[in-house]
Write a structure and sequence with these properties.
By secondary structure, this protein is mainly beta. Among the domains are: 207 residues, Outer Surface Protein A, domain 3 (Alpha-Beta Complex); 107 residues, Histone H3 K4-specific methyltransferase SET7/9 N-terminal domain, CATH 2.20.110. It has 1 helix and 50 strands. It has a 27-stranded antiparallel β-sheet that branches. A hairpin with a 2-residue loop joins strand 39 and strand 40. The longest helix is centred in the N-terminal third of the chain and has 31 residues. The chain is elongated and about 100 Å long. The chain starts with a helix and ends with a strand.
């Protein structure tokens, strides 16, 4: 009997304990999470959502003064997560941005008249992949490729019929070439260079039109990009007298033992395409690339798959433009690039086709412009930039392509100091004059003003101070004259002024 009583008492006490714990949890939960609504001065809702321990979390909405929705989306663990939608004041969709752990990650879209205008691929807040721009009829207008946040590689512009009308060539954010093609003159006749393409954008044909008529040489290519044949036109008429040049001719030179010494392609008597030189064993020892009889590349070996090996030189307007080594088609080791006057412009190192190690830039007068470091194709390590006087103007560090830690830049008589985390401004910012006096001090969190803000007069006395919360002024702000005496205090809520010197201006 006593055993039953003991068991009963144990179960009863255990049940009471569980109930108490649950009540405490519910009580605490109700204190930690609350629905919060912020208002405009006219009492219209400005924003609404959930707060957890004083911080926004969960689903949030913001509104325009006219009452229309401005933005909506979810926060997870206090940071932006999943798809956030932003609206114009007329309720039309402005943007849809995908977030993962507070960072843009995946496809983001901007809209025009409720139709997709620009599609941008992000990876951890960095544009990476193909950015696409569309016409209002939703046909493709432009494609641009990004690598680690910089324009890199081929880009294309289209007309409304889907024809490519401009080709761009970018390298590390710099436009190296812009080719305008497939255009019409004022009389709606074909004019200039016209190029047709295979589905994978390999050239199919290339030639020149003058007032709608073919003029000059037209080249035709196979799906692998190799030249098949050419045709010559004069005022739109095929020149049959020069029919013999409509096919590629192969020229060969031989050693005394009749093994091939040199093999070249000739078009209209001019060297064009790849020329190879062989040793007496038939092994390629050197290769050249010509265009219309002009040497544009020379170096080691181009194998049957088109892959380069050995040391290569590139020419532009008969002047050396760049040089370096290839291994199985990939850049390897030190590469150098030159200005048209022959002065060294860049020097960089590659490992298996990717930038790795130090990259150095020079001004046209050979003075040092920039030093930066790469690892596995991404900026990694110390970055330093110099002005024309040889003084450091920008310095900081990258980690896997993203700015990190302390960054310092000097412009005229002022120095700015930023702190970065994962490529975003995070931490204290300082603006300092030439005398070492702090003019501005503020704090960032994930690229947004958040924390203390202090602004100083030129004499060093405080001018204004307060705090930001998520990009908006928040709480009590105090403003001072040059003597350091308080002029006025303003209380902010949600970035809006609520009171002056503790007097509520919106009762």
């Amino acid at each position: 009997m006593s055993d039953h009583i003991i068991l009963y008492n144990f179960i009863f006490k255990k049940t009471i304990y569980v109930i108490i714990v649950q009540l405490i949890s519910i009580c605490c939960f109700s204190q930690e999470i609350e629905k919060k609504v912020f208002y405009y001065p006219d009492n219209k809702i400005m924003s609404e959502g959930f707060m957890y321990n004083g911080k926004p979390n969960g689903y949030w909405k913001t509104y325009y003064p006219n009452g229309n929705l401005k933005s909506e989306g979810n926060r997870k663990s206090f940071v932006l997560d999943s798809i956030w939608t932003f609206y114009n004041s007329d309720s039309s969709v402005k943007e849809k941005i995908t977030y993962v752990n507070g960072k843009k990650d995946g496809l983001s879209h901007s809209f025009l008249n409720d139709k997709i205008h620009i599609e941008t691929p992000f990876k951890s807040n960095i544009i990476s992949g193909t950015l696409k721009e569309y016409f209002t009829n939703e046909t493709l207008k432009k494609e641009l490729n990004y690598l680690n946040g910089e324009l890199h590689g081929d880009g294309y512009e289209y007309d409304k019929d889907g024809n490519i009308i401009t080709i761009y060539k970018y390298k590390s954010g710099v436009l190296n070439k812009r080719l305008v093609i497939n255009r019409f003159n004022m009389y709606d006749k074909k004019q200039g260079i016209w190029i047709s393409f295979y589905p994978d954008k390999v050239f199919k044909s290339k030639g020149f039109y003058n007032d709608g008529l073919k003029d000059g040489y037209f080249r035709f290519f196979g799906p692998d990009g190799k030249l098949l044949y050419i045709e010559k036109y004069i005022n739109g008429v095929l020149d049959k007298k020069n029919r013999e040049v409509s096919k590629i001719k192969t020229s060969k030179e031989f050693y005394p033992n009749m093994s091939v010494k040199r093999k070249s392609n000739l078009i209209n008597g001019n060297l064009d395409g790849i020329q190879r030189e062989y040793d007496e064993r038939g092994i390629v020892k050197k290769s050249f690339v010509y265009e219309n009889g002009i040497l544009i590349q020379e170096g080691g070996i181009i194998d049957d798959n088109g892959l380069k090996n050995g040391f290569w030189k590139y020419y532009k307007n008969d002047k050396l433009n760049s040089c370096g080594n290839y291994v199985n088609g990939q850049k390897q080791g030190i590469w150098k690039y030159y200005y048209p006057n022959g002065v060294l412009e860049q020097e960089e190192n590659f490992l298996d086709g990717k930038l790795d190690g130090e990259k150095i830039w020079y001004y046209r007068d050979s003075k040092l412009l920039r030093k930066e470091n790469y690892k596995n194709g991404k900026r990694h390590g110390l970055f330093i930039e110099y002005n024309t006087m040889g003084i450091i103007s920008v310095s900081g560090n990258y980690t896997s392509g993203l700015k990190s830690g302390k960054w310092e830049s000097s412009i005229n008589d002022y120095t700015e100091i930023y702190n970065y985390q994962y490529g975003l401004k995070h931490g204290e910012y300082l603006n300092i004059n030439k005398d070492g006096k702090v003019l501005l001090k503020k704090e960032y969190k994930d690229d947004t003003l958040d924390g203390k803000f202090e602004y100083y007069h030129a004499n060093g006395n405080i001018k204004e101070k307060g705090e930001y919360m998520r990009g908006n002024r928040y709480g009590n702000w105090i403003f001072y004259n040059e003597d350091g005496l308080e002029i006025i205090s303003v209380f902010y809520e949600g970035g809006l002024e609520r009171s002056y010197n503790d007097i509520n201006i919106f009762k």
